Amino acid sequence: MLLGRRKRKRQQLKKPVRKIPKIFVCPHCSKESLRIVIRPKQGEDKAIAEASCGECGFCARFYVPNIFEPVNAYGKVIDLYDSFEGDIEKEIASNKCIGELDGSRIEKEEEDEGAEEDEG
């Protein structure tokens, strides 16, 4: 019998903290290559979110509240994709985005705004 020994404290295992993803699974091609960028609009309580796939060219643009993170916007991308009526392949081939803000991608739009400022 062992007398006079101290009890050892059990080492508690730390649970690893999961990080919020920066790249998501594309709803169109099912590859992990969907990047979501959120750009706040000055003076407003909403922002523009753009999700674009680097693999298949899928693109979605829509408004989100300023407090949204990319992971929150991803849920809205999935909803937009599932509820889209029309030919998604045609939209991707013509390099257009689906969603509340139909049309060309944000990068092209920013170039146009810069040209208008130079003229005015």
From TrEMBL:
UniProt keyword terms in alphabetical order: Elongation factor, Protein biosynthesis, Ribonucleoprotein, Ribosomal protein, Zinc
Matching InterPro entries: Elf1, T_Elf1_sf
Protein name, entry field: 50S ribosomal protein L44e
Any one annotated GO CC term: ribosome
Molecular functions (GO terms): translation elongation factor activity
Keyword Zinc: yes
